[in-house]
Amino acid sequence: MSTHAVSIEQTLETISMSTNHASIPNKQLWAARILGGLPALFLLVDGGMKLFKPAVVVEATLKLGYPESTIVGIGVVLLVSTLLYLIPRTAVLGAVLLTGYLGGGIATNVRVGGPLFNIVFPIFFGALLWGGLWLRDRRLQELLPLR
Q1: Nearest CA among 49, 102, 50 for reference residue 73
Q2: Is residue 1 part of a domain?
Q3: What is the model's pTM?
Q4: How many Cβ atoms sit within 10 Å of the Cβ of residue 4?
Q5: C-alpha distances in angstroms, 29 versus 70, 71, 80, 106, 138?
Q6: How far is residue 112's CA from residue 96's CA, in Å, rounded to a whole number?
Q7: What is the total count of domains within the chain?
Q8: Most CB atoms within 10 A, among 50, 68, 129, 142?
Q9: Domain for residue 30, yes or no?
Q10: Residue range 52-66, pLDDT digits in tens
Q11: Residue 18 resides in a domain
């Protein structure tokens, strides 16, 4: 029985080491935190505002063709996705979910004929989020190496 417990502990240690930032240079880790952290902070604020539904959020949502009843749900999805991105163990899942969320923003703005800035801004944000994650995650660097 103790052999089984050691095996589980060794497995957990291996998993822990694979997500450890120890092998990433300190400057690179800080660049990653800033690169991914600033857009994540913006998205947290945006998601929080959707929960409180100030007039500016309601007006913008209606202008994009969504009913007011969808605002809180969209805010919850955004907050959960961003929080998953900020947790190292679930960061890739969060990045995938945020990519979908931002893609929806792009599609919505294309559909309503929004200004170019509103179409390019989510692309830029997605690039920052993925760039920050790439800099801090060795597994992602191995999956998508820069050559």
Answers
A1: 50
A2: no
A3: 0.83
A4: 8
A5: 37, 35, 24, 29, 11
A6: 25
A7: 1
A8: 129
A9: yes
A10: 999 999 999 999 999
A11: no
**Is 106 part of a structural domain of the chain?**
yes
Domain span holding position 78: 26-143
Q: Can you give the length of the chain in residues?
A: 147
- Separation of alpha carbons 113 and 125, rounded Å: 20
Could you give the CA distance from residue 92 to residue 90 in angstroms, rounded to a whole number?
6
pLDDT tens, residue by residue, 13-33? 444 444 546 589 999 999 999
Q: Which sign does the torsion angle of CA 70, 50, 94, 126 carry?
A: positive
Q: Could you report how far apart the first and last alpha carbons of the chain are, in Å? A: 47
Full DSSP string of the chain: -HHHHHHHHHHHHHHHHHT-STTS-HHHHHHHHHHHHHHHHHHHHHHHHHHH--HHHHHHHHHTT--GGGHHHHHHHHHHHHHHHHSGGGHHHHHHHHHHHHHHHHHHHHHTT--HHHHHHHHHHHHHHHHHHHHH-HHHHHHS---
If we measure between CA atoms, which residue out of 117, 108, 116, 122 comes closest to residue 65?
108
